[in-house]
Amino acid sequence: MADNRPIGIFDSGVGGLTVFKAVRNVLPNESIIYLGDLKNFPYGPRSQAEVRRFVFRIIDFLCSLDVKLVVIACHTATAAGLDAARERYDMPIVGVIYPGAVTAVEATENNRIAVISTTGTLRSQAYLHAIKELNPAIKVMQRACPELVEIVEAGQSTGEIAERAVMKCLEPFSNFGADTLLLGCTHFPVLLPVFRKLLNSDVRIVDASLATAKRVQRVLEQNRMLCEDSDPSYRMLVTDGASRFRESVKRIFNEEVSNVEAVSLD
């Protein structure tokens, strides 16, 4: 049975648009509502309890728009609120951590995975737990790289500034010998060309955004919730800074977004 209701995707800012784009590419028939919580950006430095409150408030709002599935397109919010949200809501909720962990575990051949993330995600140890649950023999080294989020948000994802920041971020891993790098923040795939330039070609780079999109596809297929509409619609919502959001999308993704709606979650 077809389900033509939209998918809801949210993040604290524009980073989650990497997940939006991946879902759009994997599921081109699906309508999507994207919400950027710019009013509370960034989530990384905040406590898990505070981020969890944001997660509930946003999912409540998306439920009022009759979404059929919610993607928490933020690693910090996934770590803080995914399990609690699944207990609270009677709909499929997909986070970005488990799909990324599964893909990284499948990718590594020497059982060494490097993970870069925000401070909040690192503090939660969510990636370590997910990877160890899948394969306890894998060695994991983690590092928080919040400066990369700032660079992406500032539209400096190419050039010398980006390369210096990525080199600094990767430096602690130099003697670890990982054959797989997991990008544990939705902003980081924007820097993929820089990572590929600076890393050895035999290092596998795992983009959790694409892994998440494939997970969404599987969940919809398993629950017979795929859309059969060939004319999908896309809505962009923000809790603050609509003009800043439009500028960031153009700068980061080289896409024009004309209709950005400001909404209140209160």
Q: What does this molecule look like?
A:
With 266 residues, this protein is of the alpha/beta class. It folds into two domains: 7-95 and 211-262, Rossmann fold; 98-208, Rossmann fold (3-Layer(aba) Sandwich), CATH 3.40.50. It is built from eleven helices and ten strands. The chain has a six-stranded parallel beta sheet, with helices on both faces. It is globular, with a radius of gyration of 18 Å. 47% of the residues are buried. The mean pLDDT is 93.
In terms of topology, how is this protein built?
Elements: E1 7-11, H1 17-26, E2 32-36, H2 48-64, E3 69-72, H3 75-88, E4 93-95, H4 97-107, E5 112-117, H5 119-124, H6 126-134, E6 139-144, H7 146-153, H8 160-170, E7 180-184, H9 192-198, E8 204-207, H10 208-222, E9 234-238, H11 242-253, E10 260-262
Helix pairs in contact: 1-10, 2-3, 4-6, 4-10
Structural class, judged by helices and strands? alpha/beta
Instruction: Write down the CATH class of the largest domain.
Output: Alpha Beta
Specify Rg, calculated over alpha carbons.
Answer: 18 Å
Low-pLDDT segments: none
Percent strand: 15-25%
The overall average pLDDT, rounded, is 93
What proportion of the residues is helical, as a percent range?
40-55%
Strand-and-helix sequence, N→C?
EHEHEHEHEHHEHHEHEHEHE
* CATH architecture annotation name of the largest domain: 3-Layer(aba) Sandwich
Shape: globular
CATH topology tier name of the largest domain: Rossmann fold
**Total number of helices:** 11
Count up the domains: 2
Placed side by side, the strands forming the largest sheet appear as 4-3-1-2-9-10
Number of separate strands: 10
Gap from first CA to last CA? 35 Å
Main sheet characteristics: 6 strands, parallel
